[in-house]
Amino acid sequence: MIYYIAFVLIGIGLYGIVSQKNLFKQLVSLTIIDTAVNIFIVALGYLHGAEAPVYSSVTPLANFVDPLPQALVLTAIVISVGTLAVAAMLLVHIHEEYGSVDAEEIRAAKEVIE
Amino acid sequence: MIALLVAVPLAFGFATVALPKLSRYILPLVTLFNLVLLIGFIHPVQVLEIGKWPAAYGIVLVLDSVNYPFLIFVNLVLFALSISAMFEDKLGVLLLVLTAALNGLLLTGDFFNSFVFLEIIAVVAYVLASQNKNYYAAFKYLIFGSVSGVLYLIGVVSLYVYAGTLNMAYIGFIASPEYVQVAGIMILIALLVELKILPLGLWAPDVYSNGSTVTPVALGSAVTVAIFYLFSRIFFNVLEPVKPLPVYILSLISVLFAQLAAMRQKTLGRALAYASIAGASTVMAALSSGALGVEKIASAAYLYLLNEAISMFILFTIYGYLNHKGFKNDSVAGIAFSLASISLIGFPLTAGFWAKINLLAALFEAGDYILPAVLLAATVIEAGYLIKWNVDLWYIDNDSQDEEREKTYLPFGAQVVVLLFALTLVIIGFMPDLITMHTDKIASHIFDFKTYFDTILKGGM
Amino acid sequence: MSKLVEFFMNLELIDWIFYLVGGLMVVFSIFAVEAKRIFDSVLALSAVSLLSVLLFIVLKAPDVAITEAAVGSGLASAVMIFALFRMKAGEKK
Amino acid sequence: MRRIWAILISVVFLHFFIGTYFPTLPEFGNIDMYRRVSFDYISKSTTTSYQPVEYKKSKGLEDGSANVVTSIVVNYRSFDTLGEVTVLFAAALGVGILANIKKRRIEFEEHKVLSVATGMIFPLILVFGTYVFVHGHLTPGGGFPGGTVIALGFLLLMLAKNEFKVTDAAKHTEQVAGSGYVLVGLIGMAVVGVFLANFLPTGTIGNLFSAGVVPIVYTLIGFKVGAELSSLVSDMREGDKV
């Protein structure tokens, strides 16, 4: 079930990237994809009836879900936010340069420059 | 010991962030240190289990006869780049990070680790691509690159689900082939985007033609070579090859389309960018040709890749400095440029000649006649536009702008590097055995999964 | 019809949460992609991110949930909104 | 036209994933833990034979953090985390390089309530962030969220006090913490002989002073991420500094 949610979200993100002319929307769609993939990966490690993978006074003995996908997702989240920051800065520059973040208007502005 | 190849550039990168002026001088020193370490002190075969965790659990770094030549070449390119290129101070820190990431990507024996290094390279590449106010192209690259990164991640994680580990050798041993195919498709698409095979590499022409002396060289000569290594490692060595036919056809179309597009370009930068795409596609076509697993084809393909990388280094560096100003004032650059173009076309007595002849011979032997035909047609087109550009640049008339003349020299460091690389091409042209010796070795080991697996199994030092 | 009722009767709590949160996420992300104003789509994005935090908690991944809450919906939205402000500042001139 | 293409691509994509990819996956919530390396991560027996771990009782394990995710992130797969830190580093550096826009900075109107409230909350946020990364090996959390919380605290300060700027001190923190991480790895290389190896005793699982180098590394990461992200946000706001 959760697989389908994740992949529908990825599909929406992909649709957004291809269909939207606004570059900012493309970035938003990209972030949706990242979130969806993270959900999918965590779901791959889920085990029915298991606990969160932390030894504590509540769970002194091991009956845990798979911790490795969670560790991978931690890395993936940080990587995606790094990419996002660079992308946001690039967008600011594009807006500075062409006065717009719309792909077609940028193309028009480029032709004027050339 | 081999961890130093990653740790040292990284440590210096972190340390110089507050004083970026230093990084300009540290970068050549660090890459030189890496080269000395590689040539003098560490030799294949070495396995390092990081943190002392056994191979299936932790991350292993492997140095064997396959990645050793690649490591030397990539560090050499970065060393040359640090001398020849012109960049702002802060980019020096970024290039140190790139050095560490490329070394890590070449050494790693772990799928997720390779994803992390690919992403470091990608983030660095986005920033590099935005040099010279090329922001829109960089953003396009970012979108393409991030989507491919997501696909790579899904592929890697599904390999973990199938095999229960992330170690490349163990996955190749455990995971069942029909499942691996599905994950392989995703990883393959991700790598094809980075290797700029055409429908997936539409970002490349704009990024490569930004006229900087860093971007096309770092991306085209260092990163592409490293990713070709990763491709060979994953699909020849570790996993079963994913049905190669679609990739083969895609690459063939990409070669022809890129060459035709290169012919029609009005600026040299874009023409070179398309030529670079065509080169990468040719190597890809050769590696994925129907006769998969033939060592001779792989060996010739690696020679082709080397020739491509060195020639493109020269051409892009000179284009970055001189733009369209011609060689009247700087005949050293002109000679290097012409030698590189000749080698790229494949005239006799250059490295390109042997690359193409070896490739053709190996393909004929294996009974593949489509790629040779495409290759010959591509060579004719390539010869056409490269000779045209050479003639244009040699006989261009810019006497009228006296003020500009002073500026159209290459800096001394760049001249030396470019000339040395051009000489290398000629020397390989006279003595191809120098290189074919190594490429044969790579090719004979890359299809040998058993040796690789045994190396990992035996573990650390 | 009876099959549909049966289907919903047999759902456990965790499935209900998935349907509810997942459905909301899909709605919000469609809104984020199709919204007219960019500001709205950034807000919808951070809503998607917050809902995913809920899913992470249900999936027994507290570490990921905390990181996503701080990084994904906190910092990422801040970065995007700052970028938007920058562009607005350019337009006024 | 563009939308039709987009729908087509998404449908092809979903078709591939649902038709070809999903059958290869295990059923949701029904995975086989014994076939995965995680099983040994949880019981902390990658180098020793299997032995169940008990909270506050097991001693001298190969890895001593009660939070298994942390033990993977900072110990078993520490090299990945080094790479992850590097991605963030490269991104912050890239934003710094790209920040040279000739545009005035983003100004905020100072608000009395906000600035007074921030004065009270800001230290609490810092304490909370520090708590999150110092206890990363015991409770959920760790260096990345902890550092981000600190950066968000600085963001709040930026919103409340218009003059506030992140100074070069952030860059120096980043420098020291980043090199410190590599240095910890190199010390491991000197003491144990392998890069990033744990060279401290792991103690009793569940105690604050346990888990060897893990808390040290997470603290360094916390400082580094905090400094990096605050300077990233500040760079985005300030524009051309020169």
What is the alpha-carbon Rg of chain D in Å? 23 Å
CATH architecture of chain A: Orthogonal Bundle
The arrangement of helices and strands of chain D along the chain is HHHHHHHH
Tertiary shape of chain A: elongated
Would you write up a description of this structure?
The complex is a heterotetramer of chains A (114), B (461), C (93) and D (242). Chain A is mainly alpha-helical. Chain A has one domain (1-113): Helix Hairpins, CATH 1.10.287.3510. Chain A has helices at residues 2-19, 23-44, 67-98, 103-113. Chain A is elongated and about 70 Å long. The mean pLDDT of chain A is 88. With 461 residues, chain B is mainly alpha-helical. Chain B has a domain at 244-396 and 413-449. In chain B, 75% of the residues lie in helices and 2% in strands. Chain B contains 20 helices and two strands. In chain C, helix 2 (13-34) packs antiparallel against helix 3 and helix 3 (38-58) runs antiparallel to helix 4 (62-92). Chain C starts with a helix and ends with a helix. Chain D is mostly helical. Chain D is 60% helix and 0% strand. Classes of the chains: A mainly alpha (114), B mainly alpha (461), C mainly alpha (93), D mainly alpha (242). Chains A and D meet through helix 1 and helix 3 of A and helix 1, helix 2, helix 3 and helix 4 of D. Chain B: The chain crosses the membrane at residues 25-45, 66-87, 111-129, 141-162, 182-204, 216-239, 245-262, 271-294, 300-322, 334-357, 369-387, 408-431. Chain B: One of its GO terms (cellular component) is plasma membrane. Chain B: Belongs to the CPA3 antiporters (TC 2.A.63) subunit D family.
